[in-house]
């Protein structure tokens, strides 16, 4: 329930800087066994960065939460999934040996503070489609 509320908060909060922007990897079309590499770069130095995904069932799933480049929370994903934040403004997601069930829209989000504390957040999406 908390995650659902938090995700809703991301959509409802006003953006802290009108110039805040996230640039991301364009959509990918991959075959089974390929490697997906997603990256998002923020124009601000927001303290928090997140990965989410929305699959065919339309449920938004939390994946990773970074604070000051440190992984604080992640969902139980297969070892094929790996996320890192090598720089304050850059977040990466690597999916090795992709499978059909990995097809989804992947979202990158940033925030100055947590949803409870802040009025600044930004969200961007990535799309991965598996070809058969």
TrEMBL record:
Keywords: Immunity, Signal
InterPro entries: Ig-like_dom (IPR007110), Ig-like_dom_sf (IPR036179), Ig-like_fold (IPR013783), Ig_sub (IPR003599), Ig_V-set (IPR013106), TCR_beta_variable (IPR050413)
Keyword field contains Signal: yes
Any Pfam family the entry gives: V-set
The Ig-like domain, residue ranges: 32-124
Signal peptide: 1-20
Recorded GO CC terms: plasma membrane
GO biological process assignments: cell surface receptor signaling pathway; immune system process
Protein name: Ig-like domain-containing protein
Provenance organism: Podarcis muralis (Wall lizard)
């Amino acid at each position: 329930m908390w995650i659902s509320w938090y995700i809703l908060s991301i959509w409802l909060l006003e953006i802290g800087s009108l110039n805040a922007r996230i640039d991301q990897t364009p959509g990918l079309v991959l075959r089974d066994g390929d490697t997906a590499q997603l990256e998002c770069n923020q124009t601000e130095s927001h303290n928090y960065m997140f990965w989410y995904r929305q699959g065919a069932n339309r449920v938004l799933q939390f994946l990773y939460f970074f604070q000051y480049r440190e992984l604080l929370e992640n969902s139980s994903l297969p070892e094929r999934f790996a996320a890192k934040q090598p720089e304050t403004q850059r977040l990466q997601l690597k999916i090795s040996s992709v499978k059909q069930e990995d097809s989804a829209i992947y979202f990158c989000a940033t925030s100055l503070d947590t949803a409870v504390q802040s009025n600044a957040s930004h969200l961007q999406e990535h799309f991965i489609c598996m070809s058969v």
